[in-house]
Model the fold of this input.
Amino acid sequence: MATKLPPVDILIVGMGWTGGILAKELAQTGLKIAVLERGGNRSTQNDFGVPLIRDELRFSQRHDLMMDVSRETYTIRNKPSETALPMRRLGSFLPGEGVGGAGVHWNGVTWRWPDHELRIRTRYEERYGKNFIPADMPLQDWGITGAEIEPYYDKFEYTAGVSGKAGNLKGQIQPGGNPFEDPRARDYPNPALNQNYASKLFSKAATELGFHPYPRPTANASQPYTNPDGMKLGQCQYCGFCERFGCEANAKGSPHITVIPVALRNPNVELRTHCWATKVLKDSTGKKATGVAYVNMLTGEELEQPAELVILSAYGLSNVHLMLLSGIGKPYDADAQTGVIGKNYAYQGGSNVAMFFEGANFNPFIATGGWGASIDDFHTNWDFDRGKQGYIGGSYISVGGSHGRPITYRPVPPGTPPWGSAWKRATAKWYQGSMAIGASGMVLPNRYNALDLDPTYKNRFGQPLMRMTFDFKENEQKMNRHSAEVIGRIARAMNPTIMGTPTPRLTWNVVPYQSTHNTGGAIMGADPGNSALNKYLQSWDVPNVFVTGASAFPHNSGYNPTGPVGALAFWMADAIREKYLKNPRPLV
Amino acid sequence: MQSTRSRLVMLLAIAGSMAAHSATAAEDPVKGKTQFEQCVTCHSLAAGDNGVGPTLHGLFGRKSSAEEFNYSPAMRRVNVTWTPELLDTYLADPQGGAFRGNRMPFSGLPDAQARADLIAYLKQATK
Done:
């Protein structure tokens, strides 16, 4: 029998970026807030100091800061006719765990997704006609506009200390920035980071081909920075241990050095670590959440925390799983085309090409997480004619180079044997002389790409695992073939000694790492018939449950998701504080 | 251990000569305060306020192995007493010489004038 605790006003599940933002913003109300985090606590002092944090084997290969798949995992299949099997090792994507979540070990890349993505169905229908959208693609507007969310993008960028160069200030195109971005009220809080040699070569070639390169915006502070809450970030030291690692210099905008300590200064906010939420509890009507059941992972004790308002702010996939386990909203059925929870799961695709320059010194070990140069000519550029290519969406193309670490970074030209003395000679010869161009492609929803509960496999509490059904469809295959053609053109213009084959991703496999940009499953929208949440990320079915995260995205961009994830958390916090708490009700 | 000590002796000798050299340049603690903005993420000036790095309150005259902070093995091993001259050497290349392997994630201040300004500021601010 679970122990029932004294009630709190607001219960937050998950203490990463969005849990931290919500806790900080709602702490000002004076209400009593409890936050459950299934992993442990972390601090830069104790956990991310050098030399400990420079352990590539522990953090990069063995995923020390990430989800432990021996406790819970997902079952995976490419299509409904297959039997899904549990993912027993992390590979394709790396969900975070512990205080700060994946915000601790992200690279920092922070984008503003444009209005034509937020109103994607309307904009494509207007421009290309209704028939341009495939019948099996449930393409949906988000229920918000670019103008509505702009101030919240700004809030997140200033909180995380993003470094970048504005491309469009209040409608004025800025030289050197991304000319295709939506208008922004002000520039990034920090100037763009230094550019590496590979990015300079890429930018030169891209400019000569008529494209528009700009420095990629990222939450790696290019200078010492104090954010609006008074939290201090150090200057990035270009150490090359960013993605998969915590930052030793507090230079990466991360929740454990920004929003979380601000929230915890307030005595009304209580953080409980090693507490695993197993179910959102509801009253007899099924329309009201009464609290959350959870397990103390250190003692095994089962507890119930009653609350007036429940906010799910775990990793997006975990939010969807918890909603399915708790019956918050109707589960999606791909065959019957009914229900909403689990619908519109999406991922990211793209293409890449490796290049080798005899005698060049790219110094790959000098790196930050998100630096580099990008072009948006085939992505955020709305003038790019998708009609000619026959696909919806697009790809942004970049040269980055986030590390030159000894285990992972071993680029060798095509045709090199995979082991032995010839491989050793090649890896030594080309360590300094190689670089790559990558395209990150959008994934549009498909009726069969979805999440549901697995019929066979269970987690350590005996609850069904969540099942993921996903593959790239014809729309993405066309898009990725096109981006491979474009990056091939840029690569040839750079005139490398040896050039690999530009390779599009045409099918999805869970084994090699690709991207931790899993989206959808608990999507926002304007219609309760085809979305799980309203425009304020409030559950249509159980209005005292709000859900943050990329699980709310009705489709996936080529862009990294953290910009809108952070912005929507601030947007939701405003809606709760200014609208919901004054009169708890469905806000739409 | 012997090699560490002999390196340290060399390092201190170099520190002395550099300090003598830089003594001719005018030091500006106001500019030094600006330089110090690079340090504040990790270093406080308030007594007992350790963060990612130790507080700099009472820095000069303090041992690099003082018990109030969880110093790196490298910093404990060198076991020096901080002086303005030694700090100048350290900040020129924080991973140089006997300090190699310490935990401070900072690439250093290669500009001697910038170091002189910073140290002039710290002489006032760490008291």
